[in-house]
Amino acid sequence: MRVETTHASAVATSTREKGIILTLLIATFVVILNETIMGVALPRLKDEFQVEASTVQWLTTAYLLVMAVLIPTTGFLIQRFSTRTLFLTAMGLFTFGTVAAAAAPGFEVLLVGRVFQAAGTALMLPLLMTVILVLVPMERRGAMMSTASMVISVAPAIGPALSGLIIQALSWRFMFIFVIPIALAVLAYGYLRLVNVGKLQAASLDRTSILLAAIGFGGLVYGFSRAGEPGSSLTEPIVLAAIGMGLVGIALFAWRQTRLSSPLLDLRVFRFPMFTLSVVLMMVVMVTLFASAILLPFYFQQIRQFNTLQTGLFLLPGGALMGFSGLFVGRIFDRSGPRMLVIGGMVLVVLALWQWTFLNATTSVIWLLSLHVIFSLGLACLFTPILTTGLNQLPQTLHSHGTAISNTLQQVAGAIGTALLITIMSAGQAQPGQTIAPNPLADLTIGIQNAFVVAAGIAVVGLVLALFLRRTGEPSGEPTFIH
């Protein structure tokens, strides 16, 4: 009788775990989808609201800024507030922002809506990762993190294609209208069914740390995002000032965290070598990801004259492959560890980026599509093993801080990568020994080739770092449900 009771309890717990994680996965998919859905719509919105290109770009820049400022606080928030509270807050903010954006009478309201959407997104992703680390035992964690990676990679992959389809056939407002019922349904389901996970910890909020984090990470992301805008560069005074202010802010923030008994971000996570290595590797991966996400659309739309829908559809197979590869990547990781997957994935990424350095106006689209599929498969082999290996080494008390730091630095890497690659692409300078290209399209082609050369070089650094990655041990602590 005792065995039967234990078995029933285990089944119930397993069912509850799946319900909690599924709810968070669906919510994460919805919020991340809106992170990339805006890009191809910016030209339409520029004409719709009759604003300058630098103004409409704030729909993306403000989103990144809010993410960069809020994510560093999620380590404290996850310790201090319950799972239900954070989930309902995140989805409430996101849903409110989506409704405001859909009904926006002018550009200012649309921008406010995007800010609220970003606030919800910033809370949701670290919450998902932390809950998985608390609930899922080591032997199944790779498979579950792979499922999360599948959701996180598929959403931004289908965002441009979905946005392109909507912009071609309907009003831009339907980018938000279609999301509202899904967001409301997820919010209602979470309110009715979601239970609290983990133990709350006493944590004090240091306002000075929040201010320094906002100045540091916000300044850095703004500076590099501004440098990546059309017509801007890394040498602009405002860009240099923002980056300089960001670096000083981050240095002061880090110094203060080491002197607080309850830091906003616990930097002791960097005492764990596999976590530190995983963070650096994820920053490398983010730069290479943006190389594909930024440079290929420029190539297809400016050089090959594809429209936004055709460009989005070209990127869709690779994104779908990244998602569905989660069905096997997690299982391989659970069985064999990270080395084979990460080294193999980096080799595929380097190969694809190297081949893209030769693209021109006559390169076969089929060959480019094949390379994008290879590139996407390589990325799929990287996300789950790198993230899981690093977070697995942390004790449970540092999980929330580890996920917050990892996500924050990924946002920073994305902003830096965007600015670096666009600056190189815009320079459009011929390689040594070549003559200057005779027309703007040839200039752009050379600029894209040069940007891919830099991305390939960064990927080679990642390949070298991958050689040092190894499986990490079991953290302490059992999952706890709070009623």
From TrEMBL:
<feature type="transmembrane region" description="Helical">
    <location>
        <begin position="20"/>
        <end position="42"/>
    </location>
</feature>
<feature type="domain" description="Major facilitator superfamily (MFS) profile">
    <location>
        <begin position="20"/>
        <end position="474"/>
    </location>
</feature>
<feature type="transmembrane region" description="Helical">
    <location>
        <begin position="148"/>
        <end position="168"/>
    </location>
</feature>
<dbReference type="InterPro" id="IPR004638">
    <property type="entry name" value="EmrB-like"/>
</dbReference>
<feature type="transmembrane region" description="Helical">
    <location>
        <begin position="204"/>
        <end position="225"/>
    </location>
</feature>
<feature type="transmembrane region" description="Helical">
    <location>
        <begin position="174"/>
        <end position="192"/>
    </location>
</feature>
<feature type="transmembrane region" description="Helical">
    <location>
        <begin position="237"/>
        <end position="255"/>
    </location>
</feature>
<protein>
    <submittedName>
        <fullName>Drug resistance transporter, EmrB/QacA subfamily</fullName>
    </submittedName>
</protein>
<dbReference type="InterPro" id="IPR036259">
    <property type="entry name" value="MFS_trans_sf"/>
</dbReference>
<comment type="similarity">
    <text>Belongs to the major facilitator superfamily. EmrB family.</text>
</comment>
<feature type="transmembrane region" description="Helical">
    <location>
        <begin position="340"/>
        <end position="359"/>
    </location>
</feature>
<keyword id="KW-0812">Transmembrane</keyword>
<dbReference type="Pfam" id="PF07690">
    <property type="entry name" value="MFS_1"/>
</dbReference>
<keyword id="KW-0813">Transport</keyword>
<dbReference type="GO" id="GO:0022857">
    <property type="term" value="F:transmembrane transporter activity"/>
</dbReference>
<feature type="transmembrane region" description="Helical">
    <location>
        <begin position="62"/>
        <end position="78"/>
    </location>
</feature>
<dbReference type="InterPro" id="IPR011701">
    <property type="entry name" value="MFS"/>
</dbReference>
<dbReference type="GO" id="GO:0005886">
    <property type="term" value="C:plasma membrane"/>
</dbReference>
<feature type="transmembrane region" description="Helical">
    <location>
        <begin position="85"/>
        <end position="104"/>
    </location>
</feature>
<feature type="transmembrane region" description="Helical">
    <location>
        <begin position="312"/>
        <end position="333"/>
    </location>
</feature>
<keyword id="KW-1003">Cell membrane</keyword>
<keyword id="KW-1133">Transmembrane helix</keyword>
<feature type="transmembrane region" description="Helical">
    <location>
        <begin position="116"/>
        <end position="136"/>
    </location>
</feature>
<keyword id="KW-0472">Membrane</keyword>
<feature type="transmembrane region" description="Helical">
    <location>
        <begin position="448"/>
        <end position="469"/>
    </location>
</feature>
<feature type="transmembrane region" description="Helical">
    <location>
        <begin position="275"/>
        <end position="300"/>
    </location>
</feature>
<dbReference type="InterPro" id="IPR020846">
    <property type="entry name" value="MFS_dom"/>
</dbReference>
<feature type="transmembrane region" description="Helical">
    <location>
        <begin position="365"/>
        <end position="387"/>
    </location>
</feature>
<feature type="transmembrane region" description="Helical">
    <location>
        <begin position="408"/>
        <end position="428"/>
    </location>
</feature>
